Amino acid sequence: MGLSFSFLARSGSSAPASSQETGLGDLPESCVASVLSYLDPPQICRVAMLNRAFRGASSADFVWESKLPLNYEDVIGRVFEKDGVLFKGLCKRDIYARLCRPNSFDGGTKRVWLDKTTGKTCMLISSNGLAITGIDDRRYWTRIPTEESRFYSVAYLQQIWWLEVYGEIEFPFPAGSYSLYFRLQLGRIHKRFGRRLCNSEHVHGWDKKPARFQLSTSDGQEETKQCYLREPGKWIHYHAGDFIIPNSCKSMKVKFSMTQIDCTHTKGGLCVDSVMIVPVDRTRLQRF
Q1: Where's the F-box domain (predicted)?
Q2: Is 1 exposed, middle or buried (0-12, 13-18, 19+ CB in 10 A)?
Q3: Which of 104, 112, 136, 138 is the one with CA 20 to 30 A from 175?
Q4: Is the pTM of this model over 0.90?
């Protein structure tokens, strides 16, 4: 498809066309739009620059409706609630563009957006949106600002015997398979003379017992994993499990947790940034 467009564009510009010849600009917009519906959004935006016909066809509602989740109206209602009126009168292309931005909801503790290439739903839940045992006791936990988080702060554990981090979300996830990750880091990062340095003063106890990650859904899906936390100074996405949203599901409640409740030793020096829910695709996790 891409080669065909490139060939047509080159052949159309290599020599002046006679009045009897036709070019890309003579194609009916409806035909062009039918072709564009088979491309992904970045490709549509690129070919829209070819000429006026392609530019006009790239705005067709049916082209972009095929890229939106089938339940995009439910997503808008959940994320924007009373502000959903902002979408009235927008064409499907503008709705797609709006949903591709990181949109905050639930008091700013969560963000959701569509991946620009695939149109699949992605979500982040901040540490402020999680239930953390002892979070209000400054002997154990503190909130520290950082530019390394999309929420600009993380929960930092100095020392504790009983680690419990819980969360849940009820959301109209579009049908598909999703993975859930905890974004964690051992050690506290600071900068000195522009260099990124890791303070591992409080890091201890994570080599004694593994952390336990659990995931469950309202339709009975469950998964449990155990993993040692390692590599101080590096943000790591720890996979808690996968879940599937069937086509018939209107809204799914997902519960998840990270615990390390062996009271024979203390543990500390942990930064809890966020929980990430993304479409199952291990090779593209770095995109998020």
Answers
A1: 21-67
A2: exposed
A3: 104
A4: no
